[in-house]
Design goal:
Elements: E1 2-6, H1 11-22, E2 26-31, E3 46-49, H2 52-60, E4 67-70, H3 77-82, H4 84-104, E5 109-115, H5 138-157, E6 160-166, E7 168-170, H6 186-195, E8 201-204, E9 216-217, E10 219-221, H7 222-235, E11 241-246, E12 252-253, H8 254-265, E13 271-274, E14 283-284, H9 289-295, H10 304-318, H11 321-324
Parallel strand pairs: 1-2, 1-4, 2-3, 4-5, 5-6, 6-11, 7-10, 8-13, 9-14
Antiparallel strand pairs: 9-12
Helix pairs in contact: 1-7, 2-4, 4-5, 6-8, 6-10, 8-10
């Protein structure tokens, strides 16, 4: 297939773009490089630098595109609270521009990078797709609004679409891992301590209602996540919008993550307990039963040690360059 990948220079987008190329697809990427890395773009892909709202229509107008995989978005929760206008413009307006360009040029296959943040703070786990959606921040709200928009476009304009709601994506594949100027994810933050770029890692609360008192999260390996995108593209049906959760189905606590990082890196990784952060749920674990049953998706890299080892090999390979030559 000839595919447009938006946000294909970012962590998730670039790994998925590489996997799509490996599957023999013809990939064109749009990315403004605000948080992405140009060197992460597959050599075999066509790269277009610029804003999605400006580039989507002229790129799709070139014709013969079979589908779109849409990653381009702002994704920092804290920033979305402080600057919601940017998130509504870039995430929602940008996606509406993309959907209109797809409709104009007859592109009827879409996979959308959604998020577990659409669920807010669920009272029970594991989280299934029929749980109520109640996002607690503008980031999650914009992703939920996009899901609603895709549903209406699918029904009215015969677009076949799948939204994939990620939980905690981690690990590395094909020489690509998490490499951001502003890092908020636990595993790369812990590994930064092992690399000597941070003195310690903070544990936000140790009195949660969990086995060891620290929050529990579901981590999905980036390669397993990319496989789900391929399956979604290959099975979309005109006029239908499917929503699937993507997680490993296993939960690991903050302390378990830190201990695993210590084992993998051989570094003591000092940790300090800090007060709880407002809005942090105790446990977030996905049920991915629906996508397994319907698409035959089968994650094979669910062990935390595998995720951490791949992330560590990537981070160690970057060395100091990861912190001095990072783009965006």
């Amino acid at each position: 297939m000839k595919l447009l990948v938006t946000g294909g220079a970012g962590y998730v987008g670039s790994v998925c773009a590489h996997v799509l190329v490996e599957h023999g697809h013809d990939v064109t990427i749009i990315d403004n490089l605000s948080t992405g890395n140009r060197e992460a773009v597959p050599a075999a892909a066509t790269f277009v630098e610029g804003e999605l709202r400006e580039k989507a229509e002229p790129v799709l107008a070139e014709g013969d595109f079979d589908g779109v995989v849409h990653f381009a978005a702002r994704s920092l929760v804290g920033e979305s609270v402080e600057k919601p206008e940017i998130y509504w413009q870039d995430n929602v307006v940008g996606t509406l521009t993309l959907l209109d360009a797809m409709r104009t040029h007859g592109v009827e296959n879409l996979v959308f990078s959604s998020t577990a943040a659409t669920y807010g703070e669920p009272e029970t786990v594991p989280i299934t797709e029929d749980f109520p959606t109640a996002p607690t921040n503008p980031y999650g709200a914009t992703k939920l609004a996009i899901d609603h928009a895709i549903t209406s476009y699918a029904h009215a304009h015969r677009i076949g679409a799948t939204s994939l709601r990620y939980f905690n994506v981690a690990g590395a594949y094909g020489g690509i891992g998490e490499n951001r100027e502003i890092e908020t994810h636990l595993i790369p933050l812990v590994l930064q301590v092992a690399l000597g770029h941070r003195d310690k890692i903070f544990i936000f609360g140790q009195d949660w209602p969990t086995p060891d008192g620290t929050p529990v999260r579901d981590y999905i390996h980036i390669r397993d996540l990319a496989d789900a995108h391929v399956k979604a593209l290959e099975t979309n049906q005109p006029g239908a919008h499917r929503i699937y959760n993507l997680g490993s189905g296993d939960g690991y606590s903050v302390r378990e993550v830190i201990d695993t990082c210590r084992e993998v890196t051989g570094h003591p990784i000092p940790a300090e307990v800090a007060p709880r952060r407002a809005g942090d749920p105790a446990v977030l674990i996905a049920s991915s039963a629906k996508i397994k049953d319907e698409l035959g998706w089968n994650p094979t890299r669910t062990e935390l040690r595998t995720v951490v080892t791949d992330a560590w090999n990537f981070s160690r390979g970057l060395g100091d360059r990861a912190h001095s030559a990072r783009r965006g």
